[in-house]
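Hello again,

I reread your note about wanting to compare the complex against the isolated chains. To keep things tidy I'm splitting this into two emails, and this first one only covers the full assembly. Below are the input lines as submitted, including protein chains and any nucleic acid or small-molecule components. They are followed by the predicted structure of everything together. The single-chain runs will come separately.
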Amino acid sequence: MADLSIDFAGITSPNPFWLASAPPSNSGYQVHKAFEYGWGGAVWKTIGEPVLNVSSRYGALNVGGRRLVAINNVELISDRPLDVNLREIADVKRMWPDRAVIVSAMVGSTPEAWADIVRKIEDTGADGIELNYGCPHGMSERGMGSAVGQVPEYCSMITGWVSDVASIPVIVKLTPNVTDVTVPARAALVGRADALSLINTINSIMGVDLDSFELRPNIGGKGSHGGYAGQAVKPIALHMLSAVAGLTEVRAARTPISGMGGIETWRDAAEFMLLGATSLQVCTAVMHYGFRVIDDLTDGLSRWLDDKGIASVREIVGASVPRISAFGDLDLAHRSVARIDPETCINCNLCYVACEEAAHQCIDLTVDGARIDPHRYAGAATTQPVVREDDCVGCNLCSLVCPVDACIEMITLPSGRESVTWNQLMRERPEVLEWDAMLRYRDETGIDIH
Amino acid sequence: MTGAAVTILEANLMGASCARVCPVEELCEGACVLGADHKPIEIGRLQRYATDHIYERGVMPFTAAPPTGRRVAVVGAGPAGLTCAGELAKLGHEAVVFERRELPGGLSTYGIVVMREPIRVSLEEVDFVRRLGVEVHTGVEIGRDVTPESLLEEFDAVFLGAGLGGVPALGIPGEYLEGVTEALDFIAATKLAEKDGLDRLNGLPLGRHVAVIGAGNTAIDAATVARRLGAERVTIVYRRSESEMPAYDFEIAFIKQEGVEFRLQLQPLEILGRDGRVSGLRCARVTLGVPGPDGRRSPTVDPTDEVVVPCDQVITAIGQEKPRALIEAFGLESTLGYAAVDEALRTTNPKVFAGGDCVRATGHAMTVTAVADGKIAARSIDAYLASLPVRSALEGTR
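Full-complex prediction:
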C-alpha cells in the first residue's frame, strides 16, 4: 500500500485528509471521533472573538435529485467559550500525538489581540495556526474574516504580527471572494506566512421561496448572504489552487498549500494534490455523510497510487502544475474533431441541436448516408447525425451533451499547420491584430473558419 | 472500484454469483429506504460491476493467515462449502473440498439458469477460492470414493454442504417415458451446453409443447429456459392456485411476460405416451378447501373431472430429495429429513458441521443464505479447532 503520510510545513500527518475548520471540528468530542475514524488531522473550528449565532443556518443546492451538491451557511466562528475550546484542543492533541491539530483563529485587528490568541493556541500543544481571512458573513461586517482577506495590506500586516510571535507554522486561509486570489496570496507571503490554504467559502444567496418571497435559509422572515461550499465549488477551488501553486514565490519557497473546496471522493483529492495541494481539507462531504467517508478517501487514494506504481502520495503534489498554461501559450495548430459512433448512437439528435443552434453548424442529419433537411424531411427512417470533420472546430459541445458514454469521441487529427502560440504570433506577426492582416494570415496558413 | 469489490468479497466470497442470483427485490433492494417513493439503488447490478472488475483483473486482495496445521474436509463445492473452505483458508486452516460432480460450484454451476449466471462466473469464483489455498477435488462422492469414517479420521473437522438430491419421482404412470426430464437436469444441460458454445445450446432436445409440473422458482426457471430455447408452448401445471405458488411474485409476473401459460388446480395422474414418447399429461381437477396451518388451502382431487394437457415434453419441478443418505452415513440426527444443527451450525457429532440447503428445513433456500451458513460454520469450526488440545510438533514422527 502506498505511503499516504505527508509533511506540511513541518506538520506531519498519517494521511493528507484534515477536517476543515467548520462545524465538524467544533468540539473535542467530534475531533476525537474523527481521529478514531482515521482522519489525518483537523483544523479546529475558528476560535477567537465572542459571538452570537442565529437559528436556521444552512441552505442546500440540490440538482436533479442529488442532494447537497452545495451548502451555504451563515454560522459564525465557534460560539463555545474560548477556554473550553483551548482545553479540548490540548486534550485531543495529547491523545493523538501523530495527528495534525491546527487551530483556526480570528480576533480583532490589533497586534495585542493576535499575540494573545497565538500564545493561547501554542499553549495547547497544537501543531499550527490557521488565520481565518475568509469567512464572508457576520465576521466580515465586524472587520474580520474576508474583510481582512480582501485587503492585501491588512493581510500582510496581520500575518506579520502573527509571524512575529508564533513559533508554530502559520497558515493563511484565503478568501475566494476577490478578483484575483494571487494578490492576497502574495500579501500573505509578504507577511511571512509559512503556508497557505484555500478556498474559504464563496459569498452566496441560495434562493427565494416563491410562495413567501422569503430567502433560504430563512431566519425569521429574512435571509442573509452566506458562505457557499461543496462539490459545486470544486472547479473554482481547483483554479484558485493552481493559480497560487503556479506563483513564482510559492514555487521558489516550496510554500505548502492546503487545498479545499468540494472534496468528496478520492478522485477529487488526487486532483487537488496534482494541482499543488500537500494537505486536503474536507467539510461538506462530512456534513453530508459523516466521518466514515475517510475510509473511501484513504482506501481509494492508496489503491490509485498503487495502480500507478507511485510509492508515496508526496510524489504527486503539484505534478500537473507544469501543465497549467496561459491561454497565449496554447498551441493554435492543435486540431481536435468530434466523431459520432453510429453503433452506440441512440439517434436522440441532442448533438445536432447543440451544434446547429449553439455551436458551429457542422453536424448533418443523414438518411442512408445522404444529408437531409430536417425541416422538410417527411420520411420515416431514423436520421443519423454525422460530423462534417472539415468544418468541426473541436469545441467538445456535442460530446458533452451526448447522453451515451463514449459515443462521441474527440479525435486528434493533424492540422497540417506548424505549431504556433498566440504569444509567438504576437512577437512574429503583430500585424494580425488588424482584420485584413488576420485574414491574410489565415489564407496563408490554411485556417478556414466555416 | 477494487476497494468496493474487496469490501463485498470480505463479506461474501460468492459476491459475483449473489449479484446475479439474489432475489434483490425481496432482500436489499426491497429494503432500500429509497424504495418507498423512488427507485431503490440497484445494489445487485452495482455489486456485479464491482466484482466483475476485480475478476477481470485477477486481483487477489486476501492473504491467508499462517498455517495452523489443522485440516478440515468440506463435502460439497457449492456456495456453502466454497465459502466455508475459503473463510477457513483465510484463517490459516487447510481446507479440502470434495465434490461429487464433474464441475465445482454446486447450483451456481448447474442450477442457475444461463441468462442469469453463465457457468464462467461460478467457475471463476471457485478459482478465486482455490487461490486462497483451498484444494477442490471433483468427481469424488462420499460413501462411494471416500468413506465418512476416513474423513473423520484424517481431518480435524468436517463441514457438510452437500445440498439436496434430485427431483423426487412423481409416482404416477408414464414417468419413465422418453421426454420426461427433471428440471434440474434440464437446466444443467443448458448450462453445460452454453459453456461449449451457443450452437450446442440450440441443439438441445426440446419439445414443441412443454409441460412443467410445479410452481416453485425452479419450475419458473425451467419454463423460462424452455420458452427462450424456442418451445412453442410452455404450460405450468400446478395443483393449487396462483396465490399458493411458492415462486417469488416478481418471478411469476416475469414468466407471464415470457408467454408461459398456467394450468392451475390440476393434479397430474398419468403421463400419456405414444410410441414410447410423451404425448400428453392426464390430470384431475382439484378443489381447494380451508387454509391449512401454513395458510395454503388444502387440495382435494376430484377423480371424476379429468383433463389432458397436450404436450410432448414433461419437466418435473416438485422440489428436491432430502439428504437422507449423507445424514445416515455420518450418523447424524435430522429435522424433517434435513441435517439437524444448532445456531452455530454444529451437528450432533461435535466434529461435524453442516450448512446450506442440506440444513434448510424451513425458509427460502438462497445462495446468499448458503454463503451465510458457510461463514457461520467457518467461525464455529475455527472456535472448535482452537478448543482442541495443542498438538505436539513431534506427534507426526512418534
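For quick reference: The two ends of chain A are 53 Å apart (CA to CA).

B.
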